[in-house]
Every structure is written in C-alpha cells, then in structure tokens.
Design brief:
The structure is a single chain. The model has no long low-confidence stretch (mean pLDDT 90). Helix 3 links the parallel strand 3 and strand 4. The protein contains 14 helices and eight strands. By secondary structure, the protein is α/β, with parallel strands linked by helices. The protein has a single domain, classed as 3-Layer(aba) Sandwich (Rossmann fold). Helix 4 packs across helix 5.
Amino acid sequence: MPVLPAWVRSAAFWALVYSYCFLCACTALIKLFCSILSRPRETFCRVHREVTPSCLHDPALGTHCYVRLKDSGLRFHYVAAGERGKPLMLLLHGFPEFWYSWRYQLHEFKREYRVVALDLRGFGETDAPSSKDSYKLDCIIVDVKDILDSLGYTKCVLVGHDWGGMIAWLVAICYPEMVTRLIIMSFPHPTVFTEYILQQPSQLLKSGYYFFFQMPWFPELVYTINDYKVLKDLFTSQNTGIGKHGCRLTEEELEAYIYVFSQPGALYGPLNHYRNIFSCLPLKIHQVTMPTLLLWGEEDAFVEVEMADLTREYVQNYFQLSILSKASHWIQQDQPELVNNLIWTFLKEDRFCTKD
C-alpha cells in the first residue's frame, strides 16, 4: 500500500483536529442553550469567592514559596515539604488541578525527600502570560529545568499526573540527565497517546475536550456556567469523580478547587496549555532511559487502560506498570495510601538495570 505524502497526512490530521473541534463546540453550544432555556437564572450565576479556603494554608502540607526564573522572568509558586538538602521530588499536577492535588504526597514523602509541588505556568498563584504562544510545551519543559536550577538541584525524582504526566514524559526525554526516576500517573507515553487516539474512536471521544479547548474564549465560558458546575462534576460525578471506591473530596477541598479556578482569568492559562499541544506532536525523539513507574486507574474515564501497556515499548530501562483496581483518573487523591506504597516500593527498588 503506497504511503501518502507528508503534506497529505498533515492536511488530513489538521482536518480531523478542526472538524472535531467544531463538533465539540457545537455540542457544548447546544448544552448551553438548553441550560439557558431550562434554568436561565442559574446558568450565569456565579458565587464571588474572596476568602481562601483554610485547607490551602494547612502548615502540615508544607511551606508556600515563590521563585522568579531568570530567563522567562515569570514568578512560580510552589509548596515545599521536607528538609532542604534532601533529594528532590518534583510534583507536576494535571488539569483542572494545582499544587493541592499532591497534598497526600507532600505529607508522605517529606520524611526522605525535599518534596516540591509546583503550580505550573498559568495555574494557581504562578504567573500567567497573556500570549497563547507562551504556553507551548517547549516553554513548559524549560520551566521545569529552570525550576530545578533555581532550587539548587541538578537531578530529581519527577512525578506527573494527567497533563503533568505529559510534561514529565517530555522532560525525561529532553533532559534525561535531570531525572533519576520517573513516576507517571494516568497518562501514557506521548507517542502512544497520539497514535492510539487516531486509531481508536472510543479514545478520540474521551479526549474530545482536547479539541474543544482549541476554541478561543468559549471553553472558559462553559466552565463558569452554573457556578462552575463542569468543574464540580469532574471531581464528584459518578462517572468521572474522585472516591467511588476510595477517598472523597470534602466540601472544603472541592471549594478549594473552585476558589482557585474562579479567580479572574484563572482558566485562560490552563486552557492555553492544550491550545498548543498539536504544535509539538508527534515527537521526533521517543525513548525514555531512566527507571519508570506508571500508575493507572482501572476506572479512568479519560484515558483507556490499553495505552498503559503499550507505553512499555518506549522505556529503555526498568518499567513497572501498576493498574489500580476501582481507581479513578484522580488516582493520587482517590487511592493515596496505595499510590504512596507503590511509589515507596519503586523508589527503594535496587535492581534497576538497562534493557538489552
């Protein structure tokens, strides 16, 4: 079978992207009109939140710190636990999350690590540049490198969940000398993701929000409807929520998420991460060379479990895959004790070796 020219394949890819983007936007628009017709007053109702939930200032979780990077000039916010000088464990959150999604890990690993939970560029209290191009993955990867330099480290245990998992994979590929061990939750190797999503319609549907987020301003509006109902449902609904069989968010914890993302302009930066994803995929370099742990929830509503084992092909070192029974997408919050135990076991493993 003849191989299509590169420009034809590229044109077909972008036709798919924008066609599906249009379809997702139409679906969201229909839902918005239905909400306006059935609940006009509630649709655009938003609670004005000024008081920071007290759980975000729990001293047991660590110390709130800020660092301004020399090259970008951006100020980053992070929460750090554990003594300075201990090995660094750097935690990268997903969407719609921020540093607080690592609260269980901050408390657990501070015994042996300097644990740093970062607010990524555009999230939480970290600066949010106004240009969409400022959120290209190249920029985000360099952020992680510069954060290590600013913290006085050259290496770390790198942990990423969801979108933070995507970033962690890319950091491990681009700067392998910086990552001693890689721990990923709920996201496959980027090459597996891009190939699988184009071959499996079911995963394409589950990843519809990637395409929807390509639209300007409209996704931000949708998230604010009915006082951020979309955000609340992501964490609490029967299909996608935290704690069907594990820990549940308390009312205060849920309010912490709503508080952070309801601040003026707080959704613009996070969604711009997704608006740049198609500019860097597929990858030119694929292989990961450090020991890698991949954790996956059996009941993840956003990424199909079949991608987890396919990831093994791209790790040229010890690779451990653990699929957690009955766990959701929000795995480190849903099953924190089990996740922490699996991480400890992986970190203390002494038989790492390079594959033949």
